[in-house]
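[job 4417] fold queue: 2 targets
>>> target A
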Amino acid sequence: MKILVTGGNGLVGSHFVGNYSDVLSPTVNELDITDKSSLDHFFSEHQPEVIIHFAAFTDVTTAEDQRNNRNAPCWIVNVEGTANLIRTINYQPYFIYISTDVVFSGKKENPGPYSEDDSSEENLNSLSWYGWTKKEAEKLVMNNLKNAAILRISNPSRAEYASKLDYIHKILKLYDTGKLYPMFNDQYLTLTYINEVTETLIFSLPIN
C-alpha cells in the first residue's frame, strides 16, 4: 500500500515517518502543495492509497501578524495548499487531515472539552488566524472528500529530544537561555503525546 505523508520533516510528521518506514515522504522540492504543477507531476507518477496531510504553517505568533492576509504564507499553505491537494486527487484515497484544537474558541460560555461532534468556531474574531486557516481547511476536507478523517492534536510533545523542539522542550530551552517570556496562569492545556499520534495513525490505516 502506498502511503503519502506531506510535511514528513515536521515535528509530528517526522515521528510517523521514522516509525512507519513504507511511506512516500517527499521534500518540499519534490512536492510543493502550493504549486499545482508540482502536485500534478507527483500524482502522475504516484497514486497513493492513503494520504496523511501533516504539512502546515504552524507558527501561531507569525500567523497572527498575517491576520486577514490571504496572500501570506499561513493562508497559502494551510488553506490553498490543502485545496490544491484535494483538487489534484481524481480518485478516492483514504485522506487523513492533521488539524488542531484551536479550531474551537474556548470561550468562557463554552470552554470545552469538545467532542468529535462539536462544530468548530464560525466567528473569525473568536479564533487566532492560525486556527481560522485550519478550520477553513477542515471544511474543505469535509465538504469535498468522502473517504476522509480529521485528527485534531494539541500542544504536541514527545518523550525524546528532537531537532525540532516540541511544546515542552521549547519552553525549557527558553528558560535555560534566560529568554523565557512571562507565562500565563489562567489556562488549562492538554498535551498531545506525539508517540500516541503515530500509534493512532498506524492503527487507523486500512490495512488494519
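>>> target B
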Amino acid sequence: MSTIKERRPAVDGWFSTGSGGEGVRLLGTRCTSCGTPYFPRNDLACRNPGCTGPKDGSELEDYAFSNRGRVWSYADARYKPPPPYVAAEPFRPYAVAAVELETERMVVLGQVVPEVGVADLEVGMEVELTEGTLYEDDDAEYTVWMWRPVK
C-alpha cells in the first residue's frame, strides 16, 4: 500500500502554488516608489539607482510576479549539478529556460517540465509557470516552479 506524500516547496517563499485560482506565481518584492521588482525577494532597500524613494527598505512590498512569459534562451542540462542542488535519483537530464516575464520584462531561469526537451523549445515561445517535483525522500515530494509551453 502506498502512502500519499506531503508536497513541500524545495525553497520556502520563492513561489506559491496557485491557491485561489491564480496559478503558480513567483514571489518577490517590489519598490513602492519606482516599481522595480526583485526576484528572489529583496528586503534591504531598492537597488535601482534612479529610484527617488527612501533608502531604508521601507519602500519594499511583497509582490507576486506574472506567471507567463516568452523563452529568451534555453539549454539542455545533461549532467547532475553539484551540491547544494538536490536531484532525483536516478538523475535524468532536463531542459532549462530563461524566460522574460510578460509584465515585469525581467528574465527568470527555471527548469522546463520533464516531457518537454530542447528540441521542443524555441526562442520567443510563450510559456507559463507550473509546479513540478524536483526530488522525493521518504517523507515528502519537494517541488519547484517549472516552465511549460502554452497550448
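[job 4417] complete. Note on B: The chain has a mean pLDDT of 90.
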